[in-house]
Design brief:
Elements: E1 2-7, H1 11-22, E2 27-33, H2 36-45, E3 50-53, H3 60-72, E4 76-79, H4 89-104, E5 113-120, H5 124-131, E6 142-147, H6 151-163, E7 168-171, E8 182-185, E9 191-197, E10 200-206, H7 218-226, E11 231-237, H8 246-253, E12 258-262, H9 271-278, E13 284-286, H10 288-299
Parallel strand pairs: 1-2, 1-3, 3-4, 5-6, 5-11, 6-8, 7-8, 11-12, 12-13
Antiparallel strand pairs: 9-10
Helix pairs in contact: 7-8, 8-9
Length: 307
Amino acid sequence: MLKVVIIDNTLRNKALYEKIFNLDRDVELVDVVDNFNDLKVVLSTKKVELLAINSNLIPNDEMIRFKEISKEFSLNLMILNSRITFNEEEKVKEQLQKVKEYFYGECSIINEDNIVAIASSTGGPKALQEIIPKLPSSLNAIVLIVQHMPASFTAGFAERLNSISAISVKEAVNGEKLINGTAYIAPGDYHMLIKEKNGDLFVELTKGEKYKGVRPAADILMESVSGINKYKKMGIVLTGMGSDGAVGIESLKKTGAHNIAQDEKTSTIFGMPKAAIDTGCIDEVLPLENIWRNIILKVGCKNGYRY
C-alpha cells in the first residue's frame, strides 16, 4: 500500500483530496499538512513514500524545500491538480483515476541507463508543458531538451516547468554532472553537448556557430548523445519550424535509439517532425498526449511504480 502525505494549505482542497485518496484501497493517506514544518514532524514519526503537493498554492521557495526533503528521505513527489471544486462528482472521479494512474500504476524496472533527447521549437513550450509534468520523479532517465528560445527566457521557462513537475527541471550549467530523473534545458544562445568522464556524464556549453540558423541546435545535442556508450537512447522531435533534429535523429538511430515524432494534427508547425520522419529513422509518430506515456514505457521507473 502506497503511503501518502498531501501538502495543501486550503480547507477546500484538503477535504477534497482526502476524499479522493481515501477512496483508493491501494493508497494509505498518512496525513494532510499545511506546510514544510508540519511535514518534517510527520516524517520524523511515520513512514511515507509519496508527497502529493498542490504546487499552485505553494510559494516557489517552499517548493524547492519540498523537493530537497523528498531527496533527503528518498520520497517520491507528485504535483496535484487544484482545479476541482466541491459537488463536482465527475471531476472527483477523474482525479481519482489520475491518482491511480500516476501514483500507483505499474511501470517496468529497466536496468539500463537511459537518455531522452528532445528537440522543440515553435509551439514547443506548450508541448513540453504537456509532457514533462506528467513524467514521474522515479523516471529512469536523464532528459535533455533543446527548446529554441531567446537567452533571456530559458531560465524562467525551466523554473516554470520545475514548479509544476515531479521530476526536477533546470537550465543546464556548463560542467555540471547529469543526474537521473532530471530534465536539463539548454540555455538560449548556447549549444549543449554531453561529455562522458569516468563513467559520469557532464554538460558542455559552447558558443559555436549557429547550426541551421539556430543556437542551441538539437542536432548538435543529439549527435553528442549518440557518442555516449552504455546508455539506451530515445530521440523525440516536437513541433517546430525548419529541420533541426533530423540529422540528430539519424545519428541516434545508428546507435539503436527509439525515435518519436509528434504528429501533424497536434503540432503547431509540422516542419521539424516532418523533416525527422522523412529521414526514415522515426519509429513512431504520436499525438502529443501520448508521448509522455511512451517515454515511461521505454525507459521505465527506478522503483517499479509511476509515482
